[in-house]
Design a protein that fits this description.
The protein has 367 residues and is α/β, with parallel strands linked by helices. The protein is 38% helix and 17% strand. A seven-stranded parallel sheet has the order 3-4-2-5-6-1-7, with helices on both faces. The protein has a seven-stranded parallel sheet with strand order 10-11-9-12-13-8-14, with helices on both faces. One of its GO terms (molecular function) is ATP binding.
């Protein structure tokens, strides 16, 4: 049986993972870790919830030399929440393994003076957004000449129109001989080609999924969809549910209506302040809220444990979006369910999505 140590992961990290109940590598980890440890430039694609964060963090942390008092690894993420999540996981691994180097998150919206003070401690691992990292470098507070490993998490979004120029600007600040690791669950052909042109990486694709979620649909008139969410939350054993909105529904309006009906709900919206978004995530993770209402971009890459239901208030636009949303549940081998709320006119679109994904749809059983 493949183990983390057989992949080249030091015993200290393997022991730290075992304490968290992680003993067997996933498909993407088994394929990605040895190649990353060997210094290759890589693209890794795998479904959500299959352990991509550990697939790059373990080789990255293994490469850190605590004696070098400088930034040695840089991780870029497309959203502030994902960057903070990655930094938290990295710190926990470092502490559990008993290692003596720092991990620092650098994101926009956070206090600049505090981040500058934190950089005085010479953290070895920097996680954050490209604009803030470029700003700290421009101010002379962050030196990048010692970076030997670059990670682009959810790289297809980092290569989108809004962030590509900023990412390229940061890459130009790094030593040319640095290693590059790029990972995503939903990278299309265009994103992969862009990655190949920038870094000449080898592509590693893991196709296995958790397979632990059921796909249901529930027919309801468009005007009654929010009411249906309220009824389903009371009827089903929802401990931690995610409700995705798209173009048709206003998330703030949905939140207001659900709260009026007595549902403990919070929202994750891109236009809110960072502290408000963090409070929403803390509430759903701590069990103080039953539902988290979110747009697709806001929830990009987030790992929220024990999400048992994903509800599409707005039907996903395409296969990639469906898979991204569905991947928030049934993570790490646990069970879950995806429920699409559709009116009669939307059924053909949902059936077409299901056919392209080769999944079986079932009508949600009545109580």
């Amino acid at each position: 049986m493949t183990t983390f140590t057989s992949l080249g992961v030091p015993e200290s990290f393997a022991a730290a993972l075992e304490k968290r109940g992680i003993t067997v590598p996933t498909e993407i980890q088994a394929a990605f870790i040895p190649a990353a440890c060997a210094g290759e430039n890589l693209i890794g694609t795998a479904p959500t919830g299959t352990g991509k964060t550990l697939a790059y963090l373990l080789p990255l942390l293994t490469r850190i030399d605590p004696a070098e008092r400088t930034a040695q690894a840089l991780i870029l993420a497309p959203t502030h929440e994902l960057a903070m999540q990655i930094a938290t996981v990295a710190r926990e691994l470092v502490q559990a393994a008993g290692l003596a180097f720092g991990v620092q998150a650098l994101i926009g919206g956070a206090n600049v003076k505090r981040q500058i003070e934190a950089l005085k401690k010479k953290p070895a691992v920097i996680v954050g957004s490209a604009p803030r990292i470029a700003e700290m470098h421009r101010l002379g507070k962050l030196k990048l000449a010692g970076v030997k490993l670059l990670v682009l998490d959810e790289f297809d979004h980092l290569f989108g129109k809004q962030q590509l120029d900023e990412v390229r600007a940061v890459v130009r600040l790094l030593p040319p001989e640095r290693q590059a690791l790029l990972l995503s669950a939903t990278a299309g052909t265009a994103a992969v080609r862009m990655a190949e042109s920038l870094f000449a990486p080898r592509l590693i694709r893991a196709e296995s999924t958790n397979g632990g979620y059921e796909n249901y649909y529930h027919i309801v008139s468009f005007r009654d969809k929010i009411k249906a969410v309220q009824k389903l939350t009371r009827r089903l054993p929802v401990r931690r549910g995610l409700v995705f909105v798209g173009r048709s529904f206003d998330a703030a309006h949905a939140l207001e209506k659900l709260r009026y009906e007595g549902i403990k709900a919070v929202a994750l919206l891109g236009q809110e302040r960072r502290d408000q978004r963090r409070a929403a995530l803390d509430a759903i993770r701590a069990g103080r809220a039953e539902l988290l209402i979110s747009t697709d971009l806001a929830a990009r890459g987030l790992d929220i444990e024990n999400v048992d239901y994903v509800i599409h208030l707005d039907l996903p636009e395409d296969v990639r979006t469906y898979r991204h949303r569905a991947g928030r549940t049934a993570r790490a081998g646990k069970a879950g369910a995806v429920i699409s709320l559709v009116d009669e006119k939307e059924m053909d679109k949902l059936k077409a999505l299901a056919a392209r994904m080769e999944i079986e749809l079932s009508r949600l059983p009545r109580a």
